[in-house]
Design goal:
Length: 459
């Protein structure tokens, strides 16, 4: 009689996955509306203010992605220790993550406050005086929020590593309520434009960091940050976090730098253009990014869920469970993003007019959004959700290398070829981005199926 191999008990039940994933979707939607609220509310101040806020938000996304990369490193390390049932080291890693996040965010805040005008001119070149004025004040206020964003991201990541995403969801709800309320008072009531949007963002981020900072210190949690005001840096633990965080940060950072380079190209489309006939490329790009970003929320949330789930599986050395959960979560991502993208395709004629754009800019935005919906359905989950399984296993150098090469060759190179060289303008830039998605999807799917990512060790 053949010996049977015992089947390991599932680490996550379907109910546990749902409890982790559903709040993450809601949280990502709420976080998206912070930037969306700023963009929509400042439209009453004119397209120059919209463009100024959009330019700074592109830089802020770069900075926030650095914090997210550090948090991903912390999530992977903590999740793997939890999968191994090593709570002591999990708590130690949690404390080190918060210290690293604070150090990095304070450094970036100082640089941004001191050099904000130089940074804007270096990246975006000669923009109009009205756009620059709005960008400078918005940059000043949002840069002051960097340490609070970093603390929030670290705390939210730690709760996710424990399988608890309700805390960050509720926190996001509070953030949005504060941001929209302050925006409404300052933008509509006092006509403060970009300054009002920046103050709303700053106040809401301070509140979010304060709430989650208090909650993560509760000793009743499986993982908590103890004695935060008695710093003790543990080099070996920081190295474990940074082994994941640095390659992920480089990947995310270079990705956003590439987007900024493309955005500088987009600003050039408006120089000397007849905006009445052609539409504003900068304003249309800002609106398309804001609206299309909502269709990516299910994939982003599933990716965050995947880091926790696959991380705990790898920590427990349950490789087959890691594969099984990845496939299951990818099916969820495709189903949800498919529905969202179909909605975007058919609802864009209703959504775009909400932004008070000129007819030419609105027509350009609608055209881009419909193309985006088509490519979202097919390629986005494999391009951006699937690689989180590889990162959770520690296969971060591969994802970094692929992402950087694809970004430089496709997203940047093709943007200049299609957008400027062939005269396709903003649509050509977005087509280059879609080509980037196709390449990433093919390579990451191949890597996952071959299984080499399961050979890595983080702890």
């Amino acid at each position: 009689m053949e010996a049977t191999v015992p089947i390991s008990k599932p680490i996550f039940s379907n109910q546990a996955l749902a409890r982790l994933l559903v709040p993450l979707v809601i949280e990502q939607l709420l976080l998206m509306t912070v930037g969306m609220a700023d963009t929509m509310m400042v439209t009453t101040a004119g397209e120059a203010v919209v463009s100024g806020v959009s330019l700074v938000d592109s830089i802020n996304v770069l900075i926030i992605n650095v914090f997210s990369a550090l948090s991903t490193g912390g999530t992977v390390v903590v999740a793997q220790y939890l999968g191994r049932k090593d709570s002591d080291n999990a708590r130690l890693a949690a404390k080190q993550l918060i210290y690293v996040a604070l150090i990095v965010s304070l450094s970036l805040m100082g640089l941004a406050l001191l050099l904000r005008e130089h940074i804007l001119r270096l990246i975006f070149g000669d923009v109009s005086q009205e756009v620059m004025a709005s960008a400078l004040i918005y940059f000043l206020l949002t840069a002051a929020a960097y340490p609070f964003i970093a603390v929030y991201n670290a705390g939210a990541a730690l709760f996710r590593a424990m399988g608890n995403s309700n805390v960050s969801m509720v926190n996001s709800l509070i953030v949005n309520a504060i941001n929209i309320t302050v925006n409404a008072v300052l933008i509509y009531g006092f006509g403060m434009g970009a300054a009002g949007a920046g103050i709303g963002t700053l106040v809401s981020r301070v509140a979010a960091a304060a709430i989650i900072g208090v909650m993560i210190t509760r000793p009743t949690l499986p993982v908590y940050a103890e004695d935060l005001f008695h710093p003790r840096l543990q080099r070996h633990m920081i190295r474990s976090i940074l082994r994941i965080g640095i390659p992920t940060g480089i990947e995310n950072g270079m990705f956003q730098i590439g987007k900024l380079m493309v955005l500088r190209l987009i600003t050039a489309f408006d120089v000397g253009a007849n905006l009445v006939v052609q539409g504003s490329a900068v304003a249309a790009n800002a609106i398309c990014n804001s609206v299309a970003g909502f269709t990516n929320v299910p994939g982003q949330a599933t990716g965050l869920c995947m880091v926790t789930v696959v991380g705990q599986c790898m920590g427990a050395r349950e490789h087959q469970q890691a594969v099984g959960y990845t496939k299951k979560l990818m099916k969820v991502s495709y189903a949800a993003m498919g529905a969202a993208s179909l909605f975007l395709f058919f609802a864009s004629p209703v959504l775009v007019p909400l932004f008070n754009l000129t007819p030419a800019t609105a027509a350009l935005s609608m055209r881009v959004l419909r193309w985006c919906a088509v490519f979202n359905i097919i390629f986005w989950p494999m391009s951006f959700t699937l690689p989180n399984a590889l990162r959770a296993a520690g296969d971060v150098r591969f994802t970094m290398t692929v992402s950087m090469l694809s970004m430089w060759i496709c997203r940047i190179g093709l943007s200049y070829l299609l957008g400027m060289g062939l005269g396709m303008g903003l649509l050509g830039v977005w087509m280059a981005m879609f080509a980037d998605w196709v390449v990433r999807a093919a390579v990451f799917l191949t890597r996952f199926l071959r299984g080499k990512w399961k050979e890595h060790q983080v702890i």
